[in-house]
Amino acid sequence: MGSATTVQIGELQHCSYAPLAECMASIVQREAEHAERGDHGLRAAIERQGSPLPAQAAVSYWYPRVAATFGRIGSRRVELYRQYGLRQHSNSELLQTWQDRIGARLTGLGLTVPAIG
Question: Is 110 left (phi over 0), alpha (psi -120 to 50) or beta?
Fold first, then answer.
């Protein structure tokens, strides 16, 4: 979830409302640290188990749930947020960014990226 949060909050660190953007920058940094700890924990769990199967089961369970946190694809609100300068990317674009990032991390751990939808 930490990696998804960095993508979602990362979007807000570039918004037009400077106080919000400034706050989000420090939060993104902290969430990136959480995501890194999650990677280390997952790697350690795989090593402890001697098999990636339990980790794969957890990833298969959580992956679609985390993907759902990016919101509805084609949401009309995103255009309004863009007009106000709060968002630059659609839910679909943010989801794709996360999928690209997490996919590389999962395959690096010898895990399979689950399909969503």
Answer: left
